[in-house]
Amino acid sequence: MDPGPVESAPATSQSTRITQATAMAPTASSSASSPKSQPTQPTKEQLLEELESLLVQLERETKMKLGVENMMEVYIKDKKRTKDLEAQLDKYNKRIESLTKEIEQLRKSAGSAMPEVTNKLKEHRFVASTAFQASIAASNSSSTRPNVRPKPTPISSKSRQKSYQDSIAFADDDNRSTSVRLNEIMQVISRKDVDSNVILEQLDTLVRILRNTGDVAGHVSKDVIINSLRLCVADQRAPVRVAGFRALRHAISSADDVRRMMNMQLDIFIAMSLAKESSQDHEREQALKLVRAFIENDALPDVPQSVVRALVAIAEQPNDKFRNICLETLAEIAIFHIPLVMETGGLRIMTQALLDGQRSLVDVLVHAFTYILDSPSTRCLLRPGVELEMIISPFLDTNRGPNYEERLQNSCKVITLLMKSWSGVFYMCANDLRAARSVVQALRLPSEDSKKVLLDMFFDIFYLRLPKDYSSFLSGRQHVAHIAASSAQVDDGVEGLNTTSASNAYSRTSGSGPAILNGGFLANAISGDLANVRADNTHKNERLNMMDHHLTMILIIFVDAGILMALVDMVKSDDIYISRKATLLIGEILQLSTKLLPISMATQVQSLPKLFALASSFDDEQVRHNATTALAHIDRLSRIRTRYLSQASVDNKQEREATAKRNQEKVHEVKKRMGINIDDIHFRQLIMDTQILNTKDYTKWNWENILELLQGPLLHPKRLDEAMRGSKFIKRLLAFYRPFSHRFSDINASKANFTRYVNTGCVLFSTLLSNPDGIRYLGENKVLIQLSEALRELDPLNHDPETEPIFSSERMESTLSCGYFTLLGTLSKYKEGFRIMEKFKIFNLFYQISELKARDDLKIAIITNMDYSLDGHPRVLLSKIMTSGYNPIRLFSTKQLGAVLHSSEREYNGWIIRLLVTQLYDPNLEVCQMAVSLLDEACEIPANLEFLVKCRPSLDHLGELGNPLLLRFLSSSTGFAYLNELGYVQKEMDDWFENRNQHYVTQLEISLHRALINTPNKGTANPFEERIHSEHNHEAMQPGDGWTPPHFYGELTRTEEGCMLLKEKGHFQLFASFIRNYSLDDRDFETILRLKATLWAVGNIGSTRNGLPFLEEEDIIKDVINMAEGSDILSLKGTCYYVLGLIAKTDQGVEILGELGWEGVVSPNGVVEGLCVPVNLREFLSIKRWEYQGALPPPPKLAATLKNDETARVILKNVGDMSNHIIANEASKNLARLRMRYPEYFSRADIFYSVMQMLGCYHFRFAVRSYILDAFDLRFTTDNIKDLDDVQASSSVVAPDEEIDTSAAETDEAEQGKNEEDGEPDIPTPKLHPSVIIVGGFQDN
Fold it and tell me: What pLDDT score does 494 carry?
């Protein structure tokens, strides 16, 4: 592809000339002929010539278009160049569209020349545009959004090839009926003398019909279609086989179609294709897609073992490019139909892949195993103590083979994932915590590599983050690790300790460094403070933290397994890295035990007698030093956490803010007194030390002294007046900030420059605004005049094209010009600053900027820096930007409103509520969802909830998105009355009772799974950049938060009116009755799902003070406990565990659970944590022992014609022996000799059928399968396939007790002796029992 600057001729010049010439011919002929004569059509040669010309032009224009797209990727940041390239791209798109229409017109009028036209089009790979593609192109060309440009998608040759293969070759304009066309296609593809290109064309048409026609069975029988396609997949030509498998995949609409395929022995051809070498990857790919179509259509019970064994053979190959997809397919089959994988040896391959496969596959395979472990009906297919115990083997292996480190990492990941699912947790705790104890004991092994990996694994299991400077501490360069607040923020009360004012986005995000200003202004504003807007922060005092509840059980398990003693032993290690990392882990475990465990258990964990003994022992100085260091670190960690928690325990944020404000005022007052106390000489010396009066070069100024003066002496009115009137100090300092002086405005953007110059400017403005003389002086200075003029430059009518504006996009990214908005934000904090900004019409200019479509960066700078504490223009500006512009800026401004809400979350915010109610009607659903989340959070304050109800918002148009807010309304009497008036409560209650409870379970379990596996956020998306196919962008899917979502019944019971309604409906009595009547032996999936939904409903009702009496009245809590301790469904045990945690959210619930043998967690100040653990841990964690119920695969069905054919029996015997790797080499040699001696046997359908049956019943490696299939020379024709069907009809399983006629064998022995004398190959012909032929070697267990 050459995207060079070749200027193409006008797209329609040559085609127009040809069309005109052909149009003139009829005119001339008609004048010479009779009036009744018809105009002549252009000749075939003219038509093909014109078509060739159009196709050549189309190819040229397409190349030019691709070249422009590639250049757009290169110059994506060059906006000017990008704009020109977009214009060129639009021009080429229009030319391509015009040429395509002309080619389509020519093709439709081809008449008798249609075959030649079709070949010409296929030669040039012309792909006609469908109506859908045309509509998309039209919408793109008519788009009027100049700034929000979709990122061009790179087009690779592979994607173009795939698009060509999977797209519709030509427009479907055949007017014949579907029945006629299908019959014609079946006739063509069933003939062997037809050219492959014709068959491919017909198969392509068939795929198009199958896609566009809902039910082709009404036109042609599916049996006829599948039978015809069977000839294609049996064809000798590879492209025909590929297209045949593709057509078969599209022909599947239900499990009945798969059953028809298996009856026609298509599994044989699938197995053959999957056994081909890498040169036939296209065929193998289509065969794999066909197998996956079986899974999608729930047809696995009809799939024979031969197909799955072919997948297993590929999955065994470590270097096969299809290994990963085969492993994933086996994992899916194991979930939907576990016996099929078990009987074919797939579980063994999956277990090996857990350690030897790629780490990206571990998640998929572990999830399959945890699903199998969940239910007793599938758990019995795993051998206890065999399958999953292999994952611990790398820690215990003394002989380290190749890839040991990779196997070790995979083993750690498997254990981590197992501990993050209830099935894995219970399995690791089976047999008195045997697996968990083995993992802990591995910490005592002498292998240093294993210890390091294991320590990292435990940090992951306990969801712990290392301190930011841990590397220095672990290496010994530091004696202590500086524990930051982040590591203590496991407790949600610590959130908000470092909250700053929402009026200054730069101060919040300054920690990001230069990225704030340089090349990332928008991205930083999005990914900084606003990314931390926690819309799901609601109800956390009533909702259950499932992450903490799960972690509580994990902590108890490993403490019981002896992890603390093992870590204390590691502290004695001579390796300082291991010693100190173990110290960190001990400290974190102790802190977790303080937070998550009941006091009775936590006190036992806190005592570390062995560590104290080591610290007081003088036997080994190094050991004593390590132990004392560990104790010092643990003590320091405890004191730091205590300080953070004591700060976080202050629930009233207003009180904290008032305290901080009082402290700040005291500091301010002290600085003022210092300014008063200094004498004139000292003051003048301070001014001289700043160097402002000595030079205008700001780089030589002492900015530390300047800041000290502004924050101290200049706060006194007398000193400030002297600096303004008596010297040029303030004048020169303000002159530095003038935009057109090009000093401050030209400084490069960096973190250091921003901190020095912008922060000093903010302090300068604050100092001047604190004094009436300073306000007057600032209003008369040129700095704000020039700032207003610089903002006016953004108006296209006022801008001088020869000069670059101060606030151009490039300068906003690369210089401190963006800092002016921070300075203006400082002005907006004061009423006097408001008046000054109004005087210079800065707010008017802001309104004009908000209407600029191409300057979203300025809009973000305005709304993130303005202060909204005063009612006035900033709130109006925010409202205007929230309701105008493109989707990204509306979403961003809504998030910014959330940041403002967080900064005053305990205050009444009526204006914020009004703006968010307006956003509920935004056309973009993301904006609506954000508004709903923020309103839900704001309604934690009763006054806000009452005000919102008075606004009477309509949420019907939001559907599911509005449910959280509607549920929030239920928690207040006013909201309940409002919803009841609308008829919402009765309707929603019936809906939840019927099916929404089950939907809640699905939503909760997905959220919990994402939270447990700690899904990383792969890159921060920029919402100002359009995404293509964003609905399929699974990487952007947000991980769950680990909190229980709001539940209708839980919210209903928060009011007396809701409890009365629940009692009238009688739903709770039905819930309790269903739980009591459930039999622990019932393992039906639908029943289990309904039971989980009922349990969650009961738990949410019991989590409220008003709802707990319902549980006491029915005495249902003991039934939940019995189910938690006695159920065989492991996920159901976990659900009961969470439900008991919900009940422990109230003091009365903790008391009831304590009486029933479950101890609740209560904080030192008497607040219930919503956590509970069983006193008898063994009874809860135990799993009933099960017997392995695996079965041998069924024997193969052999052709009846082979019963007395001893040569065929010997062939089968050697084929069977090749499944045994010990004798496979000898068997392969024998098979080669037999093929040389009896080549006709390797062309017989009955022998081939029997061999394929053996390949489907026993395990053969991939190379062996390929070798065996290559030995046969069977060309499938219609007759051969019919013979194959006849063999299948007459085949049967050979009974083990049948006798074999040995007379033929004796004759063969004599013949063999004669052959040996003649020097012919030695082929043994043993007299064997038929069972040996059937088994043929090792069997799968």
Answer: 32
In the chain, what percentage of residues exceed pLDDT 90?
Answer: 20
Strand partners, 1158: 1174
pLDDT band with cut points at 50, 70 and 90 for residue 11: very low
**Nearest residue to 935 (alpha-carbon basis) of 922, 863, 923, 1001:** 922
Cβ-contact 912, 893 below 8 angstroms: no
Average pLDDT of the segment spanning 400-417: 84
Q: Of 907, 1090, 1129, nearest to 995 (Cα)?
A: 1090
Per-residue pLDDT for 796 more than 50? yes
Model confidence at 581, in pLDDT bands (50, 70, 90)? Answer: confident
Query: Which CATH class for the 1000-1019+1039-1181 domain?
Result: mainly alpha
C-alpha 366/C-alpha 741 separation (Å) is 65
Rounded-to-10 torsion of CA 1123, 1124, 1126, 1131: 100
**What is the SS3 string spanning 821-863?**
HHHHHHHCCCHHHHHHHHHCCHHHHHHHHCCCCCCHHHHHHHH
Q: What is the 3-state secondary structure (H, E, C) of 212-279?
A: HCCCHHHCCCHHHHHHHHHHHHCCCCHHHHHHHHHHHHHHCCCHHHHHHHHHCCHHHHHHHHHCCCHH
**Quick check: 1125 and 1179 in contact, CB under 8 A?**
yes
What residues contact 431, with CB distance under 8 A and at least 6 apart?
385
- Does residue 1005 contact residue 374 with C-beta atoms inside 8 Å? no
Distance between CA atoms of 757 and 744, rounded to whole angstroms?
A: 8
Q: Give per-residue pLDDT as tens, 140-162.
A: 333 333 333 333 334 343 343 33
Cα–Cα distance between 1264 and 1218 in angstroms, integer?
7
User: Helix crossing, 680-689 with 703-711: angle to 10°?
Assistant: 140
How far apart are alpha carbons 582 and 482 in whole angstroms?
16
3-state secondary structure 1165-1215: CCCEEEEEEECCHHHHHCCCCCCCCCCCCCCCEECHHHCCCHHHHHHHHHH
- pLDDT of 174 reads 59
**Through-space distance between the first and last CA atoms of the chain, rounded to whole angstroms:** 55
Q: Around 1171, how many Cα atoms within 13 Å sit in the side-chain half-sphere?
A: 24
Confidence of residue 702 (pLDDT cuts 50, 70, 90): confident
Q: Are 475 and 495 in contact (CB under 8 A)?
A: no
Q: Where are the alpha helices (DSSP H) in 109-190?
A: 114-123, 131-141, 157-166, 178-189
Q: Any idea where the domains of the chain sit in the sequence?
A: 13-31+41-146+155-166, 345-461, 470-501+513-539+561-609+622-648, 678-867, 1000-1019+1039-1181, 1197-1335
The conformation of residue 1159, written as its DSSP 8-state character, comes to: E
Residues 924 and 930 sit within 8 Å (Cβ to Cβ): no
Average pLDDT, the chain: 76
DSSP state of 1055: S
CA distances from 1175 to 549, 1126, 1133, 1155, 1159 (A): 15, 15, 16, 11, 6
**What does pTM read for this prediction?**
0.73
What are the CA-CA distances from residue 816 to residues 507, 529, 747, 756, 808 (Å)? 14, 20, 6, 11, 12
**Residue 711 carries which DSSP code?**
H
Residue 316: strand, helix, or coil: coil
For the ranges 501-515, 1066-1080, 1131-1145, which has the lowest average pLDDT? 501-515
Pair 749, 816: CB distance under 8 Å:
yes
- pLDDT band with cut points at 50, 70 and 90 for residue 664: low
- Beta-carbon count within 10 A of 353 CB: 24
pLDDT band at 310 (very low <50, low <70, confident <90, very high): very high
Q: What is the pLDDT of residues 1021-1049, one digit of tens each?
A: 343 333 333 333 333 344 467 888 889 99
pLDDT at residue 336 in the model? 92
The per-residue DSSP string of 1078-1135 comes to --TT---HHHHHHHHHHHHHHHHHHTSTTTHHHHHHHT-HHHHHHHHHH-S-HHHHHH
